[in-house]
Task: structure prediction
Amino acid sequence: METAQNLPAIIEKPVEKAVEKPAVEKPVGSTKPLPSTEDDFRTRPSRTQSSGFRIGVGIAIVVLLVAGYFVYHYLSSYESTDDAQVDGHVNSISARISGHVVKLNVDDNQYVQAGTVLVEIDPADYQVAYDRAKADFEDAQAAAVAAGVNVPITAVNTTSQVSSTEADVNSARAGIQVARQQFEAAKAQLQEAEANNVKAQNDLVRYKQLVDKQEISQQQYDQATAAAKASAASVEGARASADGAQQQVTQAQGKLVQAEANSNYANTAPKQMLVIKARATAALAEAQRKKADLDQAALNLQYTKIVAPVNGVVSNRTVEVGQNVAPGQELMKIINLDDVWITANFKETQLRSMKVGQRVSIDVDANGRTYNGKVDSVAGASGARFSLLPPENATGNYVKVVQRIPVKIVLDPGANSDHQLRPGMSVTPKVWIR
Result:
């Protein structure tokens, strides 16, 4: 404490004057500065204590702070990962029919347009099947046409038949009525003839007695005899007429039974029409089935030429001329380079500020170029969930591991017009989150 109190006095104490030394005279014509004296060294301030140095240090600190701010702002304005690659559609080309390969029109790594014939299978067997199916279809079609024509014809015939049988029934009934009336008239005539015959026979008996007594002439007796015979003959004729009229009644009744039977048969016309229509429908269905067989034969014949479904590059070709292929057998792959995207596996901690639609810069290792795009979507699960053996975290020795989530990034239209981006290439995307 005493030392601290005496400090101002010590500071204010004048410094002892140094022993003066003779000044050094500068030679005439010399340009060298004279050497400084000891007092000059004592009174000159140090470089670190100068105001210019302090200002420079302050400016440097400000510059470093500003630069650090901009560097931090830049580094926090994007999320990047090197676990990313180019993805695309890999179209597998396979045969839809079996057959013998007779021509191969493409090589590996060849660019083809959609619709280009890639492989040709021997079409001979399928051409024969097509011709047979065509003939069967034409035959079934003709049968269907004929069955269809029979429907209206049968409808007209059955309608006419129903009307005709109804008329026959009515006519038969009327015939029975007429026959019965004729039979009654014949019976009446028979009765009249029998009555006349009885009178004639009685007259003959009386005339016989009279002729025996010669009360009448023989001529009168002969006339009575002839009248009796004629009357007897009239009875027989009337009886025959009555029997004939009775037979006509029976015949008319038979005709009525036949007419009614025909009418009953004709009344089955609706059911017959259903049968005819069913046959026509069956014939039409058969024609349609044959048409389906023909269409399938035409498709099989068309499948003998395997064409490219999309534009792309032929890869992994395994088929050769002379090879027998089976339906579903893979022959090659086509990579569509017009539709590629980026799949970037970001850490889950990098997705906090990442949103769909944010701009992305993609650095490609293969050509050193930078492509532009945007975030299209985020996968529904982490990449580990899609692995062959997903991790099982329900264990006692669980260790938290930062997972990676696949993010799909689409390129700007026309970005890969030169087809330099190929699926599987490594890229480094930067998603600008600010």
Notes: Residues 126-275 form a domain with the Helix Hairpins fold (CATH 1.10.287.620). Residues 88 and 340 are 4 Å apart (CA to CA).
